[in-house]
Amino acid sequence: MIFDKDMVLSIYNGLTKKVDSAKKTINKPLTLTEKILYSHLETGFVKEEYERGKSYVNFNPDRVAMQDATAQMALLQFMQAGKQKVAVPSTVHCDHLIQAKTGATEDLKEAETQNNEVYDFLKSVSNKYGIGFWKPGAGIIHQVVLENYAFPGGMMIGTDSHTVNAGGLGMIAIGVGGADAVDVMVGMPWELKFPKLIGIKLTGKLNGWASAKDVILKVAGILTVKGGTGCIVEYFGEGAENISCTGKGTICNMGAEIGATTSIFGYDKKMSEYLKGTEREEIAIEADKIAEYLTGDKEVYENPELHFDQVIEINLSELEPHINGPFTPDKAWKLSEFAKAVKENNYPEKMEVGLIGSCTNSSYEDMTRAASLAKQAIDKNIEVKGQYIVTPGSEQVRYTIERDGLIDIFDKMGGIVVANACGPCIGQWAREGAEKQKPNSIMTSFNRNFVKRNDGNPNTYAFVASPEIVTAFSIAGDLTFNPINDYLTDKNGEKVKLKEPQGLELPIKGFAVEDNGYVAPIKDGSKIEVVVKNDSERLQLLKPFDKWDGNDYKDLKLLIKAKGKCTTDHISMAGPWLRFRGHLDNISNNMLIGAINYFNEKQNSVKNQTNGEFAAVPDVARAYKSAKISSLVIGDENYGEGSSREHAAMEPRHLGVKVVVVRSFARIHETNLKKQGILALTFSKKEDYGKIQENDSFDIEGLTDFSENMPLKMIINHSDGTKDTIVVNHSYNKNQIEWFKNGSALNLIKKRNKN
Ligand code: SF4
C-alpha cells in the first residue's frame, strides 16, 4: 500500500511549474534545496529571491511526523484548535518510551503496561483526527517514515531532531518543536529562516570497510557540532550516486549532529530502487518522469562554489572508516589512528558493549554487513568478547532479517535483539551495573554520544562508528583493535583475521512483514471521545488560556530576574521530567528551576513578595496564582535559546506569568511565548535590566492601543515608593497581536473556525 499517493502525485503535478517560475524570477540555476523550498512557499509562486541566512519565509510542508514523547503536548494543543481533522497527512510513532532490558518481546510487554495510558491517548487522538498511528514495536519514527512516507521533492516537519533522515530519499525534512507541528496540522504556514547552503561533493566509491556512516563521521569532524547551524547540506557528485538510499539516510540523519537544519541528496537510481523495493513503484515512475526537477541543476553541480555558501569535497575511494568520540560526535578519529588515540587519552581499552541499529543505521544493508562479520566470528570459532545488542529500526526490517536468517546469526554470536525502538539510543537502557558509574567504553552505530546519553553513567565513554566497525570491535572486545590489519585468536589458539564486510542494499526476496504495526484512523472520527483520567499524572487535557481582559496590566509581581544564560532547558528541564510531557500542571513543577536568580545567585530560590520568604520558583508562582496575583519574568541576553520545546512557554502561562521582559530573545522562544499569549517584550535600553529590584512590581501601559511597531511603557514600582518608567519594545505583527488579545494562537484559530 502506498500512503497518501494522491497527495504525492498532486505535488509532482505542481512542482515543475513552480520550479520553472522560480528559475525565471531568480534568473539562475537552482540547487535542489532551493527547488524544494521555492515549490513549498505559502505564497505559491516565487515573487523575489530570499536572502540566505536573513529572510524569514513561510512554507507549507506536505506532512508531519511525531514521536510519542513529543506528540503528547502537540496533540493536546491540536485538540484545542477546534479542527475536525489534521490539515496535512500526519503520523504518530510509539518508539521513545520502550526500555531495552532483556529482549524484544519482554521489553515491549513491559512498555505496554507502563505506558498504556499514553499509548491509548495517542491512539484515540490519532483515530479521531485522521492521524496514522504506528503502535509500539512498529519501529523508530525515521526508519518507518523512510520506508513508507518520504518521497523525493517533498517537505515535511517532525517533532524530533532526526526527522532529517528523510533527506536520504530526497526530501527536505526538518525537526521542530510540538508547537510548529500544531501550526502545520491546523493548516497554518510554517516559518523558517531561509537557510545558507553547504554543498558536499562526493567523488569515487566506498569500498572495503568504509560505509556511508564514515562519510558523516568525517563531515562531523570537519564541520564540528556547530558548523551546519542555519544551513542545509546538499550532497552531490558521482560518489553520491554510488551510495544506497538507506546509506544516504544515515548521512542525513547524523547531519543533526553538525547542527544543520537538514541535509539532502538529489533523486537518483538508488532512490528509485529503494522506492520500488519498499512497494512504491508508482511513486518511482512519477519521480523518474520529473527527475531533473528532483535534483540540483547541472550548472550548480559543475560550479558549486558559485551556488553554495561553502563547498567540501570528499573522495569516497580514499575514505577510511572513522570512530567518533567520546562524549561528542565531532571528535573524529581515522580507524588507523584510533588505537594510538585510545592509549594517549587513556580511554578505557576494554570494549564492553557494541550496539548497532537505531534510526540511524538499521537498514537491511547495515544488518547484512554486520551479520557477515558476526558469521565469520561463528565460522572461525572466535570467542566474542564484548556484549552485542541489535536494535532493528522497524518491524519490516526485523521480520525480513529474521526470515533471511540474520537474527539467527546474531543469536549464535551471543547478541541480543531488542525491540524495534529507540531504547539505548535515548537512555532507555536498563544496563546492569550502570549505577556504579564505573569508567568503561562502549561503541554504537547511533548518532549521539553525549555524556550519560546511553546508560546514564557519566563515566561511559561512548564512541560512534558504522555497524560493521561496531561489530568487529564487539568481537575483539578491545578498543585498540584494527580489523583491517590485526589478527584475532580463535578458541584453538590459532590466529585468524576478519574479512571485509559484505552486504545487500535490498533483500533478494523483497521485504516482508506480518504486522507492520500501522493502525489507520477511521474515516469519521467525530464521535470518538478522547478519554484522559482526571487523576492521571502523565496526561492532562488542556484548558484554553484566558483572553486578555482589555486593560493595561497593573501590579505584576516580579517572579524572577534571571541572570545570564537561560535556555529552554533552564526554563523547562528534560531528564526525569520527560514523563510529564503530556501533563502541563505536573511538568510546570520544573518551571525555571534551572535559572539563576540575579539577587542571590541561586537556582530555584526566589522571594515571595507576599510573605518575604524564599521558595522554589514554581511554588512562588503557584502562591501568586492562587492569590490572584499575576507575575512577570525578567531575562538577560538570548533568553530561551536551545530547543524549541513549547513547554518553556506554556508553563509560565499556566502558572500566571503575564509578561517576560528580556535584553534579547532567542527567536523561536519569543514566538512560542507569543503563541501562548504571554507578552514578550525587550528593554529598549539594555541597561534598564539593571533597574529591576527584588521587591518590584510592574505596570504595562499602552496595551489598549497595542499595535505594530509601537513600543509599550513599563512602570517599575520600587518598594521604597519610587518609580522608573521605561520603554519596552515588541516585535508583534497584526496577527500576533490577535494571538495576545485572544489569549493564545490556538484560541484565535478556534474562534476563526467557529465563524
Ligand atoms: S533512535 Fe535515537 S536518534 Fe533515532 S529517534 Fe530514537 S532517540 Fe532519536
Structural overview:
A hairpin with a 5-residue loop joins strand 29 (712-717) and strand 30 (723-729). It is globular and about 90 Å long. It has 26 helices and 30 strands. It is an alpha/beta fold and 755 residues long. It has three domains: 5-318, Aconitase, domain 3; 322-496, Aconitase, domain 3; 553-754, Alpha-Beta Barrel (Aconitase, domain 4). The model has no long low-confidence stretch (mean pLDDT 96). The chain has a seven-stranded mixed beta barrel. Strands 6-5-2-3-4-21 form a six-stranded mixed sheet, with helices on both faces. Bound molecules: iron/sulfur cluster. Residues 95, 140-142, 160, 162, 358-359, 422, 425-426, 446-447 line the site of iron/sulfur cluster.
What structural keywords apply?
755 residues; alpha/beta; Aconitase, domain 3; Aconitase, domain 4; 30 strands; binds iron/sulfur cluster
